[in-house]
Amino acid sequence: xxxxxxxNINIIVIGRTGDGKSTLCNSILEVLxxxxxxxSESSSAKSHTHEPMxxxxxxxxxxxxxxxxxxxxxxxxxxxxxxxxxxxxxxAVSACESISSFILVVNEQANRxxxxxxxxxxxxxxxFGPESLNHMGIMFTKAMGPEKPPGxxxxxxxxxxxxxxxxxxxxxxxxxxxxxxxxxxxHPENMAVWGVxxxxxxxxxxxxxxxxxxxxxxxxxxxxLDTTGAVIGQIDYRKKxxxxxxxxxxxxxxxxxxxxxxxTLIETGRLEAERLKAERQEMAAERERKLEExxxxxxxxxxxxxxxxxxxEMDRKKLEEQRELDNKRLQEKLEAIEGKIRDRERxxxxxxxxxxxxxxxxxxxxxCENKSDDSPxxxxxxxxxxxxxxxxxxxxxxxxxxxxxxxxxxxxxxxGGQYFLNKNGNRSYxxxxxxxxxxxxxxxxxx
Length: 447
What we know:
Elements: E1 9-15, H1 21-31, E2 53-57, E3 65-69, H2 79-95, E4 98-99, E5 101-107, H3 115-128, E6 136-141, H4 153-171, E7 181-184, H5 198-221, E8 225-226, H6 235-289, H7 294-369, E9 396-403, E10 406-412, E11 418-421, E12 427-429
Parallel strand pairs: 1-3, 1-5, 5-6, 6-7
Antiparallel strand pairs: 2-3, 4-8, 9-10, 10-11, 11-12
Helix pairs in contact: 3-4, 6-7
């Protein structure tokens, strides 16, 4: 298969967990005559791909073709796992600098393109811009079976137009024509166990190869989409904002409840005071009726009144102190919540700056290596590394990295992965290998 493009062809495969993304990636490599199948295949609802993985088909005298498999969306581990997977995908695609196409894998046996997948596509559009929709195609998988031959082009086009309409409504972008789409069953040879004749199986295999070739040729014809400036979209931010509003409303409701309780206590005290006043009036009337017992009654009444006054004064002071303490605690909680929100926004902004400038740092490092030996030595930068927290003290330091002209120690995590602590004290991983996103050296003086 002869495929010619203006530059390297980068194809990103995305979709729901269990719909056949990894199997499709292996099938593409098979059609491209790649000798291995590096992607782990699984048909279960639990993803076997935990981070973006890519494989490049090198073609002498022609452009290389890179296939990237991505973690599944709508994972059984919940929404938090989906958000983390999408962030990993955005970071990996951004590191590619440009892509030729996004191939959205859809299980043709599924009833509908549900809200979860629509939200996922919306987040991709928020991250890579509206132009990413012009680089999106749909591959229908699991489209064949013992009693289900390949569907007609009309039925495929109808399903494609339905998905296009849903994405148009969710993103609010005017998509003038339906996405290109293809059908593929990655293992038609397995149909022999269902009694499908060999000539039909050969027909399915040929159809699978033609559809994959058409998809790759379509990707090669697309003008590369620049992804260097991609950042995670705003859906997860709005979700966190709604969660914060709900939490703030909950705190306010608790404060209102406490205020009502305090008002109830005050009203009870007022009623009690009125009752005591009535009693005193009754005692005064009784004194007038019983002149003979006036002195004894007055003495007892004065003593009782004084004790009651002291108790009421103590109760009043306690209520006021408790109210002031409750108000102070409430104010501290609200200030702490607002402080956390500001810290999160600053940390997110700082992380976005580091991610966006990491590519600039890498290119600057390459230019420095190409300088002649006669160039004056660069001024040594004083490392400004944060003190490691307790959770990384047991991790082994394996070298150093430089980000934005600042040097950080690199640690080897217990569960794998190299990382450094950024200015916010959070872990930043060197994705892939030591030759990955950041510069790396075993000795500080080599940076």
